[in-house]
């Protein structure tokens, strides 16, 4: 048992107050001169055992009552049977972070953070509420509420199994909020199991403020954050950034760009065995990792010349996190990078076409089609990796709007540029506002942009794009629900990514590249990088061999069409197939799924940041570690309140004066005389007393 | 003399003087008096007839009976004598207890002095026994001067120490040679079995024994609401007690004690009077004196 207010322990000697007061009274009680001592002695003889026991019991109960009050003030936490008295909420929601990093294990016990956390939560819920509360599970991979019967089943449910996905913790909170609001769950305890990984928590995102406000408005919602922020020790991770098949002479080989990384403070050189498996053929090698990261560029793995397409994996030796020791890849002839520009303004079209046609990768084929808006129906939906739309947005409900939505849902990219005459049509949760011009003497600049991820992120070597030197003469405001990636003066968003469902590759740029709007075309670096990034993102979902990250919807609406490409792999049900790393096949399609890159980052949010994110909410943070198998705790101050009440009640019962018996006095017919004042009369016999002596 | 004695109230004496102090048993006095003697005498009170035996005084033959029955009978008459009143006052420390302003000893003094005065007024001898700070042993004698001595000694009794009542009773039983009326004034806080033996000792010596058992109401009811340190007025160890815990058994002990006393009264025939200290002592005395008036024909 622990105390939320441990300082109260210093007041624990106060529990001895009843004993001290008793002793003071004992030695300072009033003195009575008494004659009938023989009866007193006789009564004491009769009372000896019981009286002493009664007195000790009374003192014990008083001490217990005072101690209980002190413990109530100290807000005790306890698990086990004591936790049973912590009061059962109406609903207990269990939010489980099933991200890949939760599979870090304790090598001694083989227990992962996820399994240890689930076990602890199940035990805590069993101890605290038993079956008195409704239990609802929401996991980060599926995000759907699932009522469960018993906490013990947490360990066996498919919804709590390991995944290789990322976790969106704000979305998890949002799901809990939606459930609580929709189902009127009453007094609700929300348990969250997480490793506090920074990429999952998105602490800089804009959703936390709204979540805080919404939860603060709810009554009786209490959060228990069970976290395992300890990083995996001696963990190595492998990533494959690029796979290219090359033929030279009568040989063929795969060129792999590999990264092997670790996160230790004082890196010592170590030899790392690497194992490559391509279409079942295995090769091994050893590399030396001197620093925290080793990049192998164009590492050649020989393959059969006849093998034009296939899949493979790179393996590292097992360590404390097996999830990042393997990386899957697929290879095939890369599809052409085909982009479509829909615009009626040639002045804007030309720089866009020029940028998209200039090859970033000389080995691939780049094609660009320009169509006026009136011929938008001719867009080659199946082959285009990117659609640039400069014109009025299609009306919601139009065929064109549906086609664009289906196109975006397939994972390819759509990039909207503002028309000269914006209207109120909305698509992907966004629509254009009005054009706003910068002051005549000076153009606006980009005051903020997101450089850690997204289209304007820094280059791989860490250099930033020259976004700050861009000039924006006029911009069209972007209205709706989106994630800003860049802002101009006045905090107006310049580049926004749609936050609507299945529109991860949909962007709105609030200016035009041509003269009179911005310097994007003139200073072409930013535009070139931005357009090719969005083109490559879209192209990832083209072709018959694709790379992807494990996520619930990565296999589309019907994952049952997919199966593991490795015939020897254990059978996996279609629900969990998109959540696990591996290579899946459907017809002639190959899809390699891996953990998202953010999962390899050991950075976690600090406790202070966690308190900031949950500020104003009723929450407590329980930091556990894999070595600690203690059960979780509940506030059990009610137990001590009840103990105090019971102690006081028993004390009152024991201290209650005994029923008085009518004294058996033979009066001999005498009665008090009412005539005159009797010389020996006394209204109330009062023995002579003396003052205290000590 | 009356005006100087704080224990003698003239009003009470005037109320009680019409009443006489009677002995319930025959007395062996030194002079003629108002009390029945075990020997036959020449009083006017007829006692019995008995057959003539040679040697009897022929003057005491009842000739009328001879004339009717032709047999000789001697007619005997009661002999009246005076009474020896022995006042035995408990002088232990517990006699200092009592309601504010009046102690148990004060009450005993009032009773004893009034009875002594009444006895002296009817020509009886009065003596005093007490074992307190100093032992008092004044044999019963007649006369106003002797009564003054008794009252003086009574006034000088200072209650102190443990009870010596039982010793005093046994000594009185041994020292009082002739039949006497022994009146005990005490709280009787002694073991009932030993008290019984002492009274039986007195009764064995043919003494008429009466006892005024002086108790305060608080000693019976034990009404205290707070724990207290009880100081033994007879010098014993103090007792720390919580009345809320002990009262029940205290009252039980009192009840048992009083039951034992009732048994002693029944078996020894002692003239027992339980007196509460808040009662008027003249009422107590009236009750006592009236209770000792011989019933008609019962001499």
From TrEMBL, chain A:
This is Conserved hypothetical membrane protein. The chain crosses the membrane at residues 6-27, 56-74. Keywords: Membrane, Transmembrane, Transmembrane helix. InterPro entries: Aerotolerance_reg_N (IPR024163), Double_TM_dom (IPR011933). The keyword Transmembrane applies. Residues 1-76 form the Aerotolerance regulator N-terminal domain. Residues 671-680 have a biased composition (Polar residues). It comes from Chthoniobacter flavus Ellin428. PANTHER family: BLL2463 PROTEIN. The keyword Mitochondrion does not apply. Residues 660-694 are annotated as: Disordered.
TrEMBL record, chain B:
InterPro entries: DUF58, vWFA_dom_sf. The lineage of its organism: Bacteria, Pseudomonadati, Verrucomicrobiota, Spartobacteria, Chthoniobacterales. This is DUF58 domain-containing protein. Residues 48-243 form the DUF58 domain. SUPFAM superfamilies: vWA-like (SSF53300).
């Amino acid at each position: 048992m622990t105390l939320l207010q441990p300082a109260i322990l210093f007041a624990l000697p106060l529990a001895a107050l009843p004993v001290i007061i008793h002793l003071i009274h004992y030695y300072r009680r009033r003195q009575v001169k008494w004659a009938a001592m023989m009866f007193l002695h006789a009564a004491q003889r009769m009372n000896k055992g019981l009286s002493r026991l009664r007195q000790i019991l009374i003192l014990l109960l008083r001490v217990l009552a005072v101690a209980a009050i002190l413990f109530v003030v100290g807000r005790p936490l306890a698990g086990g049977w004591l936790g049973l008295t912590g009061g059962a909420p109406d609903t207990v929601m269990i939010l489980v972070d099933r991200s890949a990093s939760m599979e870090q294990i304790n090598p001694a016990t083989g227990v992962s953070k996820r399994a240890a956390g689930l076990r602890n939560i199940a035990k805590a819920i069993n101890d605290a509420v038993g079956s008195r509360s409704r239990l609802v599970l929401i996991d980060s991979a599926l995000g759907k509420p699932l009522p469960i019967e018993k906490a013990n089943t947490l360990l066996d449910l498919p919804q709590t199994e390991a995944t290789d996905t990322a976790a969106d913790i704000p979305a998890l909170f949002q799901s809990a909020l939606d459930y609580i609001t929709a189902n009127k769950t009453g007094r609700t305890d929300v348990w969250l199991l997480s490793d506090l990984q920074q990429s999952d928590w998105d602490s800089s995102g804009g959703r936390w403020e709204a979540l805080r406000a919404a939860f603060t408005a709810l009554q009786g919602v209490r959060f228990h954050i069970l976290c395992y922020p300890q990083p995996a020790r001696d963990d190595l991770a492998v990533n494959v950034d690029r796979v290219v098949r090359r033929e030279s002479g009568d040989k063929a080989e795969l060129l792999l760009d590999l990264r092997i990384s670790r996160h230790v403070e004082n890196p010592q050189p170590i030899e790392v065995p690497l194992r490559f498996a391509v279409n079942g053929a295995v090769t091994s090698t050893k590399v030396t990792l001197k620093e925290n990261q080793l990049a192998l560029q164009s590492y050649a793995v020989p393959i059969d010349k006849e093998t034009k397409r296939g899949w493979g994996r790179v393996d590292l030796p097992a360590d404390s996190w097996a999830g990042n020791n393997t990386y899957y890849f697929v290879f095939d002839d890369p599809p052409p990078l085909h982009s479509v520009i829909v615009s009626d303004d040639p002045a804007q079209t030309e720089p866009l076409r020029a940028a998209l046609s200039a090859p970033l990768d000389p080995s691939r084929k780049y094609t660009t089609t320009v169509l006026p808006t009136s011929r938008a129906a001719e867009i080659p939906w199946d082959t285009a990796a990117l659609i640039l739309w400069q014109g009025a947005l299609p009306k919601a409900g139009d065929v064109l709007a549906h086609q664009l939505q289906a196109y975006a849902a397939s994972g390819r990219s759509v990039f909207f540029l503002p028309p000269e005459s914006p209207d109120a049509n909305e698509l992907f949760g966004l629509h254009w506002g009005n054009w706003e011009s910068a002051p005549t003497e000076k153009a606006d600049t980009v005051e903020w942009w997101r450089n850690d991820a997204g289209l304007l992120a820094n280059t791989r070597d860490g250099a930033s794009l020259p976004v700050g030197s861009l000039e924006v003469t006029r911009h069209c405001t972007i209205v709706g629900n989106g994630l800003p990636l860049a802002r101009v003066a006045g905090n107006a968003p310049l580049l926004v990514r749609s936050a609507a469902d299945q529109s991860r590759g949909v962007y709105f740029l609030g200016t035009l590249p041509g003269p009179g709007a911005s310097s994007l075309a003139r200073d072409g670096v930013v535009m070139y990088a931005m357009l090719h990034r969005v083109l490559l993102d879209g192209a990832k979902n083209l072709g018959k061999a694709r790379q992807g990250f494990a996520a619930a919807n990565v296999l589309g609406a019907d994952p049952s069409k997919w199966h593991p490409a490795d015939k020897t792999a254990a059978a996996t049900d279609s629900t969990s197939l998109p959540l696990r790393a591996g290579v899946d096949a459907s017809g002639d399609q190959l899809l390699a799924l891996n953990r998202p890159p953010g999962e390899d980052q050991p950075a976690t949010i600090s406790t202070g940041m966690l308190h900031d994110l949950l500020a104003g909410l009723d929450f407590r943070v329980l930091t556990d570690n894999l070595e600690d198998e203690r059960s979780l705790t509940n506030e059990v101050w009610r137990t001590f309140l009840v103990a105090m009440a019971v102690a006081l009640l028993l004390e009152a019962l024991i201290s209650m004066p005994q029923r008085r018996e009518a004294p058996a006095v033979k009066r001999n017919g005498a009665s008090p005389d009412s005539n005159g004042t009797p010389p020996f009369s006394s209204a109330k016999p009062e023995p002579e007393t003396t003052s205290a002596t000590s | 003399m009356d005006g100087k004695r704080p224990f003698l109230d003239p009003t009470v004496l005037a109320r009680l003087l019409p009443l006489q102090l009677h002995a319930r048993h025959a007395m062996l006095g030194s002079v003629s008096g108002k009390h029945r003697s075990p020997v036959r005498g020449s009083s006017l009170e007829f006692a019995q007839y008995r057959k003539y035996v040679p040697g009897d005084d022929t003057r005491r033959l009842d000739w009328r009976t001879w004339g009717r029955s032709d047999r000789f009978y001697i007619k005997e008459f009661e002999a009246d004598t005076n009474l020896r009143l022995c006042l035995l006052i408990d002088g232990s420390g517990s006699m200092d207890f009592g309601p504010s302003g009046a102690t148990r000893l004060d009450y005993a003094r009032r009773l004893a002095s009034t009875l002594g005065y009444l006895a002296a007024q009817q020509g009886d001898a009065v003596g005093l026994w007490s074992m307190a700070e100093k032992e008092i042993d004044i044999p019963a004698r007649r006369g106003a001067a002797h009564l003054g001595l008794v009252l003086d000694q009574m006034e000088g009794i200072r209650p102190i120490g443990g009870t010596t009542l039982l010793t005093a009773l046994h000594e009185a039983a041994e020292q009082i040679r002739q039949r006497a009326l022994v009146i005990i004034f005490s709280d009787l806080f002694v073991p009932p079995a030993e008290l019984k033996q002492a009274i039986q000792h007195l009764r064995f010596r043919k003494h008429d024994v009466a006892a005024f058992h002086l108790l305060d109401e608080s000693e019976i009811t034990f009404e205290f609401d707070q724990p207290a340190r009880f100081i033994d007025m007879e010098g014993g160890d103090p007792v720390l007690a919580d009345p809320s815990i002990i009262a029940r058994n205290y009252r039980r002990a009192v009840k048992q004690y009083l039951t034992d006393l009732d048994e002693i009264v029944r078996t020894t025939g002692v003239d027992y009077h339980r007196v509460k200290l808040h009662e008027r002592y003249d009422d107590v005395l009236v009750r006592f004196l009236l209770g000792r008036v011989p019933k008609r024909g019962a001499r």
